[in-house]
Amino acid sequence: MYYRICIGLLLICQIAVAQTKQPIYKDPAYSPEARTKDLLQRMTLDEKVGQVLCFMGWEMYEIKGNDVLASNQFQTLEKEQLAGMLWATFRADPWTKKTLANGLNPELAAKAANALQRYSIEHSRLGIPMFFAEEAAHGHMAIGTTVFPTGLGQAATFNTELIEKMGKVIGEELRLQGAHIAYGPILDLAREPRWSRVEETYGEDPILVARMGEAMVAGLGGGDVTQPGSAISTLKHFIAYGGPESGVNGNASVVSHRDLLENYFPPFRDAIDAGALSVMTSYNSIDGVPSTMNKEYLTDILRDEWNFQGFSVSDLYSIQGIMGSHFVTKTVQDAAIKSIEAGTNVDLGGIAYAELRQAVKDGKLQESVIDSAAYNVLRWKFAMGLFDNPYVDPKKAKKEVHSEGNIALARELAQQSTVLLENKGVLPLNKKGVKLAVIGPNADVMYNQLGDYTSPQPDENVVTVLEGIQAKVGAKNVIYAKGCAIRDTTQTDIESAVKAAKSADVAVVVVGGSSARDFNTDYLATGAAVANSKLVSDMESGEGNDRMTLDLMGDQMKLLKAIKATGKPVVVIYIEGRPLNMNWASENADALLTAWYPGEQGGNGIADVLFGDYNPTGRLPISVPRGVGQLPVYYDKKNPVAHNYVEGTSAPLYTFGEGKSYSSFKYANLKIEPVDDFTYTVSFDLTNTGKYDGAEVPQLYLRDEYASTVRPIKQLQAFSYVYLKKGETKQVSFTLKKDMFSLIGVDYKWVIEPGDFKVMIGSSSKEAQLEGTITLKKGFQY
């Protein structure tokens, strides 16, 4: 009797333990992979599809005083779609209709993330948290965050250590506010400057793009998502998006398979090796196949060849574009099926993949395909710890976002991104006893220096060129006149600008372009701006604003010529999102600079350069053409060397890698030493022979003298940012590794061929200060 009672009690205890034991997916002792597999087998089809839907997030919250709540729209979305991801929840701009008045500051953003996260978890049958994805290529696109220079400006630094520091700040600011995924870096090769999104890129060279991309990914956490400030990096845009036909955004890209393998794929591959866990498809098509449904690229190469372990995401509504833009399918459901089967895991926009539930029920799609896509998302939610610690501290966000250290870093980026192209002795400017005229449409319009994908920012967070110069010499010594707008000729007042110049010792004229969005501009459903001849905003660059020419718009050339006619020294600064026509300024300005879009500290950074508090080190990440008839004009074209046109030279006005300093540098004592059959150490002495302390950016180029396929005239392989005090000499060393000698052979396989390689070292791609030869005695088949 006693025995039977004990057995009975034991069985009751075992049943109780079994009933109270938590599922594997809720137990942090298990690996993310084990937890994901356990969770997936518990999920319904509807729940799994929800994990591959990413909807727009800015309408999903309501601000109530100092609190933020989940909106009715979000509650309905979660009930009907079980969505697992939101995009641009914290975004503010004219497209989203979120402003400084009705948008989220960092503290409210953290509260919004917590409110939405809490609602999602508590109203999810299995307690699944949300992913929040945000635009973050040059700072988190949200109110009150730190705004850095756009991609061209970042690349102009040629300083990977600085870009890694920037990436770390961006990741930390994202995570402090409750976001998890950073859309960036942008790895498109900018081979078409008329294209509206050139500003977002790292320029025309695949090696520079790759090194900048690696640095940004490393700063964002390098794939170690367990760290508090680490964010998932989403690489954009896969693939060959930066060279559309006619320069029109989203047009087909005419690119050879060899070019893809040699130039377009490597930056993405290298960034994935550096830890990127997400890849975004592009709107274009290649050889008749829309990129969002290209199985060869998304599965065969990205996953099978590169062993990519993260998740892919469509660009906004690009899955619907398979039907509505490319006309490859007749229904959105068919587009969704083709996309997910090709390897696009997540639908940004959510509308297309919502059709997948019915596709499975109708037998058009295997549920296992959805299982695989959902696994790729859920695995990283577990790895990031969202199932265990999903919430953030709003007080910490308020205190640490846009900190003094982050602002100082933005200033450093602005300094190093400024490129000095001409200096006929007028720079650096004297701070004492000088009267300055600061003139031009970009001298004191804060949003014109921030670039696209930037939210409204408090006035006190942004320093314009006018304000930066006033801080150096005092407001009483500066006369300001706008002169004209970027495009709108009804705002022209050149007379006032001429008057200001005549009363000053030097005129600083700030011209160029703008990506500043405004509430009068029309926008597509994707957020791209629509060029509208009835509305004359400053915006001539930024997504959707493609150009027919590269000339300065509006009355800017009239302004420049009028100021030059005063006889006063003229410093011309281009703040721009693409390489605009500089022909006149190159010949007539006493000094010429470009700062691209230099970010919130652009005014201070530019002023630091103008007055010699920072010796300019910026280098061009993209060539500046003399006219659109030269396009494409990137420096690393394949042989043969181009001959001149009837009308003039085929050479660009300024080529990749160019940029001047206030100092001068001597290159000497080149040594090339083998390490093994395919590795060489290249070293030389670099001396600052000028009057100023400063940095030089030595660049190493290789040319394969003879090969089985046509090779570039020259190709950047290494570069460095080297600081030298005046009179100082340092030995600089580069290691040329095996892959730097490789090419895609006639059989479309990577190969190294024996033969001679010319080594060229100098301050730009234009000319070499040192030259040598490396002879490979044997080849290698990968």
What features would you describe in this structure?
GO terms for molecular function: beta-glucosidase activity. Residues 1-18 form the signal peptide. By secondary structure, the protein is of the alpha/beta class. Among the domains are: 1-25; 415-630, Glycoside hydrolase family 3 C-terminal domain (Rossmann fold); 665-781, Immunoglobulin-like (Sandwich), CATH 2.60.40.10. Helix content is 30%, strand content 19%. The strands form 9 sheets. It has an 8-stranded parallel beta sheet. Strands 13-20-19-16-14-15 form a 6-stranded mixed beta sheet, with helices on both faces. A 4-stranded antiparallel beta sheet has the order 25-24-30-31, with no helix packed on it. A hairpin with a 5-residue loop joins strand 28 and strand 29 (750-752). Helix 7 (160-176) crosses helix 8 (206-219) and helix 7 packs antiparallel against helix 16 (404-417). The protein is globular. The model is unreliable at 8-19 (pLDDT under 50).
Helix and strand layout, with pairings?
Blueprint: H1 2-20, H2 32-42, H3 45-50, E1 53-56, E2 61-64, E3 67-70, H4 72-81, E4 85-87, H5 106-122, E5 131-135, H6 151-156, H7 160-176, E6 181-186, H8 206-219, E7 232-238, H9 257-273, E8 278-281, E9 285-286, E10 289-290, H10 295-305, E11 311-313, H11 318-324, H12 332-342, E12 347-348, H13 356-361, H14 367-383, H15 394-400, H16 404-417, E13 419-423, E14 436-439, H17 465-473, E15 478-481, H18 494-502, E16 506-512, E17 522-523, E18 529-530, H19 556-564, E19 570-575, H20 583-588, E20 591-594, H21 602-610, E21 665-676, E22 679-688, E23 694-696, E24 699-704, E25 715-719, E26 722-724, E27 729-736, E28 742-744, E29 750-752, E30 755-762, E31 770-776, E32 780-781
Parallel strand pairs: 1-4, 1-12, 4-5, 5-6, 6-7, 7-8, 8-11, 14-15, 14-16, 16-19, 19-20
Antiparallel strand pairs: 2-3, 9-10, 13-20, 17-18, 21-22, 22-27, 23-26, 24-25, 24-30, 28-29, 29-32, 30-31
Keywords: Hydrolase, Signal
GO molecular function, one term: beta-glucosidase activity
Organism: Mangrovibacterium diazotrophicum
